[in-house]
């Protein structure tokens, strides 16, 4: 014999991950912290590189400016070859120019023409965007490019000082600075990430792991006292979660104990009920034999005996049916309401001479429902109304049940009103509870419980709107508003003629 486990017990393989991703909360928290802190550190790189490039270029401009002051002592207003070579070695300047009173003068002319036109960096006026983008433009410039730098003078009176120099040294310095800043950023990010991770792991992750382990242990063996979570004294969200979990475990243990007792009681009741039905069947057969004797005294007492036996057999059958059956899912489709009402009224014992059914519902109206389950709902409601009216001593078994249909918020609401004595006060609190909600003596209380269960299976509900000496009003709500049936000999046929 091959045994198969239930779906809940069958181990299913976890879905394959498209990307590698740590499974634990601690690892994810560490990775996330490192990424966020590293990203924050990377935001510092552009302004740091821009500031470094600006200072590097400004130092070369100041060297050119000093060269221009030396040139003023020369009759030809030019620096000597020795000074020019020294400036090139120290500052890397190829050309130095100064503009005074609108006249631009070369202090250090180029020794040979430029192969490429130098790109301009004007340090006098830079907006934040161009300032931040300047180092990246330098890093991506073609090999052998020249940079033309203009800045305001510091050591002499002039409109600006201009220096032309190759950007290769600057590019090399920027690359070195970039690696240095990246290393510092990575170190700071790692250190800060580890500190943040340690803090969050102590105050958040470890308490959550403790709660998770307690839940897993409780799920594995609820009866194990060690599986119960002992709440801490924290007053934050973690403490509240621990407290609520402890309360939930206590409530669940009580529910499980009650369920176990009810299961044991149900097995005992099922066995007793089975034997009781056999006894009642034997008693009913005996009553049939008594009826055949023709004794007047027996004939006088026999109806009461038969009614008692019928109620007892019905009670036993209802208990067995309610305990064993599970209502199937409704097969919903448009269902004509008036024929369903007439059929349910007939099965519920409503007649024109006794308790009558009255309605103003158009015969073409439909509701979305399972026809069989709708019949059971309506039959239960109409039968309860008839029995309540017939049980009133001053009514003589006569009364009416009025039914109307309304459409409310995309739902069909069927209102059933009777003129009976109303639901007794003792039965209202548990009206829809099986075995305890009966409003009449000898009833099982299953009728309304089953009717409401069926209505909720349709996506609706069954509720008591009002009750009193003038009667009771129930609302049966069914989801959906289907179109009415077409009129007999439809308009479409008439228009075709």
TrEMBL record:
Positions of transmembrane segments: 25-49, 178-205
Enzyme Commission designation: 2.7.13.3
Gene Ontology cellular component terms for the protein in this record: plasma membrane
Pfam families in alphabetical order: HATPase_c (PF02518)
Topology in the lipid bilayer: Multi-pass membrane protein
Location in or out of the cell: Cell membrane
Presence of the UniProt keyword rRNA processing in the record: no
Location, primary (coarse class): membrane
One of the record's GO molecular function terms: ATP binding
Keywords: ATP-binding, Cell membrane, Kinase, Membrane, Nucleotide-binding, Phosphoprotein, Transferase, Transmembrane, Transmembrane helix
CDD domains: HATPase, HisKA
EC category: transferase
Domain called HAMP: residue spans: 202-257
Domain Histidine kinase as annotated: residue spans: 271-482
Reactions accelerated catalytically: ATP + protein L-histidine = ADP + protein N-phospho-L-histidine
PANTHER family in alphabetical order: SENSOR PROTEIN CREC, SENSOR PROTEIN RSTB
Record-given protein name: histidine kinase
């Amino acid at each position: 014999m091959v045994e198969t486990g239930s779906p809940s017990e069958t181990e299913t393989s976890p879905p394959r991950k498209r990307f590698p991703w740590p499974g634990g909360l601690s690892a994810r928290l560490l990775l996330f912290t490192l990424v966020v802190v590293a990203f924050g550190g990377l935001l510092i790189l552009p302004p740091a590189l821009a500031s470094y490039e600006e200072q590097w270029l400004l130092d070369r401009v100041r060297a050119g400016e000093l060269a221009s002051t030396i040139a003023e002592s020369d009759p030809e207003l030019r620096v000597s070859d020795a000074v020019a070579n020294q400036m090139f070695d120290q500052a890397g300047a190829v050309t130095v120019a100064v503009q005074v009173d609108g006249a631009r003068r070369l202090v250090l002319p180029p020794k040979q023409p430029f192969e490429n036109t130098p790109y301009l960096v004007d340090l006098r006026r830079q907006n934040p965007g161009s300032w931040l983008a300047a180092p990246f433009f330098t890093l991506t410039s073609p090999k052998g490019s020249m940079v033309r730098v203009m800045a305001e003078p510091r050591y002499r009176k002039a409109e600006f000082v201009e220096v032309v120099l190759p950007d290769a040294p600057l590019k090399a310095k920027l690359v070195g600075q970039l690696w240095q800043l990246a290393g510092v950023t990575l170190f700071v990010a790692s250190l800060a990430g580890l500190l943040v991770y340690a803090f969050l792991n102590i105050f958040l992750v470890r308490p959550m792991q403790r709660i998770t382990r307690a839940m897993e242990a409780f799920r594995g063996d609820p009866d194990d006292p060690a599986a119960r979570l002992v709440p801490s004294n924290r007053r934050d969200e973690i403490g509240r979660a621990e407290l609520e979990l402890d309360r939930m475990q206590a409530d669940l243990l009580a529910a499980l104990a009650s369920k176990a007792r009810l299961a044991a009681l149900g097995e005992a009741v099922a066995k007793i009920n089975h034997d009781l039905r056999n006894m009642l069947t034997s008693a009913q057969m005996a009553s049939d034999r008594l009826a055949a004797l023709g004794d007047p005294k027996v004939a006088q007492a026999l109806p009461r005996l038969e009614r008692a036996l019928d109620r007892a057999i019905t009670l036993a059958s209802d208990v067995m049916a309610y305990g064993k059956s599970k209502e199937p899912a409704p097969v919903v489709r448009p269902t004509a309401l008036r024929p369903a009402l007439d059929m349910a009224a007939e099965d519920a014992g409503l007649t024109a001479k006794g308790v009558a059914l009255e309605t103003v519902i158009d015969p073409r109206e439909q509701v979305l429902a399972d026809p069989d389950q709708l019949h059971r709902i309506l039959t239960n409601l109409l039968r309860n109304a008839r029995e309540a009216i017939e049980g009133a001593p001053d009514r003589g078994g006569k009364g009416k049940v009025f039914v109307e249909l309304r459409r409310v918020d995309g739902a069909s609401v069927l209102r059933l009103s009777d003129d009976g004595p109303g639901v007794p006060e003792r039965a209202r609190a548990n009206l829809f509870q099986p075995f305890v909600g009966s409003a009449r003596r000898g009833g099982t209380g299953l009728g309304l419980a089953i009717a409401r269960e069926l209505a909720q299976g349709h996506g609706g509900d069954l509720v008591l709107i009002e009750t009193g000496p003038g009667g009771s009003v129930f609302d049966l709500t069914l989801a959906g508003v289907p179109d009415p049936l077409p009129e007999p000999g439809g308009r479409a046929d008439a228009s075709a003629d």
